[in-house]
Design goal:
This protein is an all-beta fold. The chain contains no helices and 16 strands. The strands form four sheets. The protein has a four-stranded antiparallel beta sheet with strand order 1-2-3-4, with no helix packed on it. A hairpin with a 2-residue loop joins strand 14 and strand 15 (162-167). The N and C termini lie far apart (47 Å). The relative contact order is 0.10.
Amino acid sequence: SGTDVPLAWSADGTRVYFRSHRNHPNYVMQGFEIPVTGGNPSQLPFSRLSRLSIHPKNGAFLIQDNFVSWQTWKRYRGGMAPDIWLLEENREIRRLSDFKGSDTDPFWVGDVPHFLSDRQGRTSIYRSVGDGEEAVIPPQKWDIRWPSAAPDGSIVAGMGGDIIRVDPQEGKWRRIPIKMPKADTGKREFP
């Protein structure tokens, strides 16, 4: 079956979406869905798929087309740079980002598509607005990675070895302090 990587649940929880190169002779990752009870997977209607985020209410898809998640292509501009696409409920597909560099890691904050991009040098969080995009927070000293939205609309992400919480309405972020026990706490003695 090749490399099957789970990506998301359907909005109603009855299907699982995954990427795989099972049907492609050149190992291009494509999207599939399968009932949670198992069976034969169905291929999704786009030729490449790396990341997927599903709107929790209407089931619309945000799609990252090219697979570059395992590497950092800082300031790469070229034909393999990933874009973000929207597959709407009515199955119409439209490109949300047209930047010549890398737009990655799509996710929803409420009804608004968000993603990562290095269009201003460092990778930061952007959102779709009208026919364009805008930065949620300006690029920082370190790249932002691994974003995830909370039900209240805030975003948590990694930045420079820290975990940050972003308020997209205010355009501000703060570090989440993490306290770790001392290294010797709970150590066992060996005979």
